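Before a colleague's protein record goes any further, I have to sign it off. Thanks in advance; the entry in question is below:
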Amino acid sequence: MHTVWKGAISFGLVTIPVKLHAATEDKGIKLRQIHDKCKKPIKQEKVCPICNEDVDSKSLVRGYEYATDRFVVVTDAELEGLKSDIEEKAVEIVEFVKLKEIDPVYFDKTYYLAADSNGSKAYALLREALAKSKKIGIAKITIRSKERLAAVRVLDNHLVLETLHFPDEVRSTVDLPQITNVKLTAKEKEIALSLIEQLTAEFEPTKYHDEYRERLEKLIKSKIPKNAEQPSNVINLMDAMEKSIASIKEQKKRA
């Protein structure tokens, strides 16, 4: 499993070396843009509309648009100077709370926390303490130069880290239409509760699947020619060496 981040969990005087692994993956089918004439992928080129010229990576800088078409440039050195001393080195747990106190709107992405070398005992200690106390740790972590709020909890006898949105990243419900004048009868409420009761079951994620993706996979499979050649990653070593020898002889003749 690919390691996304490597560092340590710290709470109080305890330090636990850990590795971070993505717990989820996007199974969506990606369709590329191709030219309808030749059926080949198009190129995405970077062009400056003012100078009317192609721009390479060496000519690119970062900028913030503070007004329409007005930017301030922020250099790599300035960004480097803003980084914390503990960046990408520690998951600093600042307090412990109950999981039910966090509304799901704050949750972003899930990562598995695996014990690194010599960290097994401390890892097990935090895992058991969280499980027994029924608490989760609220922490700060920096991933890919972005500081994140996170929750450390136990899942299937392992520690997981859930990145959280900061409060100012969650939009307010103030601007949503307010439904306050609707009158509901006792009978309507009773029927609604009865319907919920009838449809209540234990959550089993394996029951659910992406029907659209399955239909798209079936459609794509039906369009692939049955006699299409399958790409091979196997390299004929003898053929490769013979071509190399022939190429070297040709170069010597020209010299």
Q: What stands out?
A: Residues 182 and 188 are 12 Å apart (CA to CA). The chain has five helices and eleven strands. The mean pLDDT is 87.
